[in-house]
Each structure stands twice: as structure tokens, then as C-alpha cells.
Amino acid sequence: SSIKREFIILLMTNLIQDLTHCILRQKTMWGMRILLGVLFRLNKFMTIEALINHAREAQTFSKSPYSNYAVGAALLTSSGEVIYGCNVESKAYPTTLCAERVAIFSAIAQGHDNFTELAIITKDGAAPCGACRQIISEYCENIPVHFANESGEFQTMMMDDLLPLSFRDSQ
């Protein structure tokens, strides 16, 4: 999957370079439209590291005054958009929300319903909690989940491996 992703990025980069030369020589609006379309689609082939960096950005919005355990999540939609989520704590602990669920619920509220991967970052690279695993499985199905520590080290697991017997309509 990583090799395929790198190949696609290389292919797209070469296509962008060729189109740029075409635009510079002919200054056509047609070439510019194609280039913009390619750049938009290129976002769908985001690297894992780039998605983790989005999660790192989301982590900066964390509201975690009680645990001091900031979590960020970045959910990639099938259209190439990245939806952020961060943990939000409450004095009434059961009402606290994890970053993963915030990202998923926010994406759904924005009209998204098809997701390709999720990145999560914590200080120690923890995997999602049980409640989040159920929500990820239910709304995102068997997507790759990347969980990273703040040094950037990460591991990837498929959702069905994180929660093998989830409650899901497709089973």
C-alpha cells in the first residue's frame, strides 16, 4: 500500500510538471483547469505522515485540562478532505469526548459518509479506546487506523484487527 501510494504520488508529480510546462508555453486556460483538477485529486493520495501532521495540528485544539492528555485525530474522506477532531474534557467525566469520535461526528455533520483512513496522535502513541473503536468500525468500516506518538513514530492497523467482532450492519 505504501509503495502504491508513493508510485501514485510520483506519477501525479510528473503529470503536474508536464502540465505546468504546457501552461507556461501556451498559457491556456484548459491546461490550468487540468492542473487544478490534478492538484485536487492529489490530496486523495495523502501520505500517512501528512495525515499524522494533520492530526498533530488538531491536537493543538485539545481541551484536556484535567488529564493533560491531548489527542488529535485527522479523518480523510473519500473526496480528499481532512476532518479534524480533538479530545474535549468535561468536569462531568462521562460527557468527555475523544478526538476520534469528534472527527467522525463532525464529518457526518458536514455531510460526509465515506472515509478512507484515520490518523491519531497522543504523547505515547496509544490506540483508540473501546468506544472509539466501535464508532470507527460502525461509521468508517475497515479503514486503516494510524496511531502515532509525538515523536512521529506510528503503527497502522486495520479497523477489523483493532475490533474484530464489532457491531456493524455489514456483518
Could you please describe the fold and organization of this structure?
The structure is a single chain. This protein has a 5-stranded mixed beta sheet with strand order 2-1-3-4-5. Helix 1 packs antiparallel against helix 2 (29-42). Helices cover 45% and strands 16% of the residues. With 171 residues, it is α+β, with helices and mostly antiparallel strands. The protein contains 6 helices and 5 strands. The mean pLDDT is 84. Strand 1 (72-77) and strand 2 (82-86) form a beta hairpin. The two termini are 25 Å apart.
- Secondary-structure-based class equals alpha+beta
Distance between the termini: 25 Å
Strand content: 15-25%
* Mean of all residue-level pLDDT scores: 84
Kindly report the spatial arrangement of strands forming the biggest sheet. 2-1-3-4-5
Mass-distribution shape = globular
List the uncertain runs: none
Helical fraction equals 40-55%
Number of strands: 5
Rg over C-alpha atoms, rounded to the nearest angstrom:
18 Å
The helix/strand series, from N terminus to C terminus, equals HHHEEHEHEEH
Q: Major beta sheet, specifics?
A: 5 strands, mixed
Count of DSSP H/I helices: 6
Quick synopsis:
This protein has 171 residues and is α+β, with helices and mostly antiparallel strands. The chain has 6 helices and 5 strands, in the order H-H-H-E-E-H-E-H-E-E-H.
Task: Present the secondary structure layout.
Blueprint: H1 2-26, H2 29-42, H3 48-59, E1 72-77, E2 82-86, H4 99-109, E3 115-121, H5 130-140, E4 144-148, E5 154-158, H6 159-162
Parallel strand pairs: 3-4
Antiparallel strand pairs: 1-2, 1-3, 4-5
Helix pairs in contact: 1-2
